[in-house]
Amino acid sequence: MADIRNIVILTGAGVSAESGLATFRGPDGLWEGHRVEDVCTPEALVHDPMMVHRFYDERRAKLALVKPNAAHAALAALDRAWPGALLVVTQNVDDLHERAGSKRLIHMHGELKSALCAACGSTAAWQAALPPGSKCAGCGQPKLRPAIVFFGEMPYEMDVIEAALDEADLFVSIGTSGVVYPAAGFVQIARARGARTLELNLDRSAGRSYFQECRVGPASLLVPELVRELTGRQAID
Ligand code: OAD
After folding, report:
1. Ligand 1 touching residue 149 (CB < 6 A)
2. How many CB atoms lie under 10 A from the CB of residue 38?
3. Residues of the chain with pLDDT under 70
4. Which of 180, 216, 221 to mutate for ligand 1's pocket (most ligand atoms within 8 Å of CB)?
5. What is the pLDDT of residue 25?
6. Terminal Cα-to-Cα distance of the chain (whole angstroms)
7. Ligand 1 within 6 A of 24 CB?
8. What spacing in Å lies between the alpha carbon of 120 and ligand 1's midpoint?
């Protein structure tokens, strides 16, 4: 790892699993009892706004009951210690990376604690329940919805992510099944630009063949180990 300066880290639901948040594709294929298509598409929001809003209200409320785990803490320690470029791109809509202390962070699939105005496109921090018909403080329209990127919508900050992938010497994917694009394609972009590629996952993911190295185990063990390797131990001991 001695020659590495610029790092991009992609995280998925697996990094928050040991904090007690359900992954999207559990053994039953459901996300907290729902099919992803029923709560994560623009069509679902049109057909059953109450159900979709309630679903994200419940997920938002649950954040108060969980804490960052050792994997989030190790990534935050890496952020503090790493002198080169570093970007954590999370697909997660929870707030555990920032609560652990990560600063160089993008929520590419949005955030539970944010509301998006479907009328004017502005976003605002949102902590409480968000019933359909809630008004935007900016334009006054009753069009606020959860600021979650639904299937078919463009993820946030793709230009910044692509620029970071262009410069990356190391790309690490942690706890993601590698089935949802564009995130699932980041490994190929990074590798084509010459980055070393590493997967950390409880199982080998759908995209495993694209990685030069795969380490199998829980994020709470593998991530601190990796951060020690990268920083020569001082960051988290
Ligand atoms: P998934 O639920 O698809 O995958 C979770 C991954 O985490 C699996 O590969 C598990 O093997 C792994 N995993 C579980 N526990 C782990 C642990 N303790 N340590 C390490 N790995 C573990 O979740 P994502 O890949 O994040 O999109 O899902 C991608 C996107 O699909 C989500 O962002 C969401 C969903 O639809 C939107 O909300 C737009």
Report:
1. yes
2. 17
3. 27-30, 233-237
4. 180
5. 80
6. 19
7. yes
8. 31
**Catalytic: 109?**
yes
For ligand 1, say whether the CB of 146 is within 6 Å of any of its atoms: no
Residue 212: both structure tokens together: 């030069």
Per-residue confidence (pLDDT) for residue 2, from 0 to 100: 72
pLDDT on residue 207: 86
The Cα–Cα gap between 206 and 51 comes to: 31
Cα dihedral sign for 157, 33, 124, 14? negative
> What pLDDT sits at residue 237?
58
Say how far apart CA 93 and CA 23 lie, in whole Å.
11
**Which residue, 204, 202, 200, 207, is CA-closest to 223?**
200
Residue 13 to residue 92: CA distance in whole angstroms = 6
Lookup: tokens for 41:
């598409």
Sign of CA dihedral 45, 16, 193, 207: negative
Q: Name the residue of 19, 23, 148 whose CB sits within 8 Å of the most ligand 1 atoms, as the mutation to test its pocket.
A: 23
pLDDT at position 234 is: 63
Q: CA–CA separation, 133 vs 49, rounded Å?
A: 9
User: How remote is the CA of residue 92 from the centroid of ligand 1, in Å?
Assistant: 8
Tokens 């555990």 belong to which residue?
Answer: 96
> Which residue is closest in CA terms to ligand 1's atom 35?
24
Output b/e per residue, 160-178; b: 16+ Cβ within 10 A. ebeebbebbbbbbbbbbbb
Specify the residue for token string 């490994």.
187
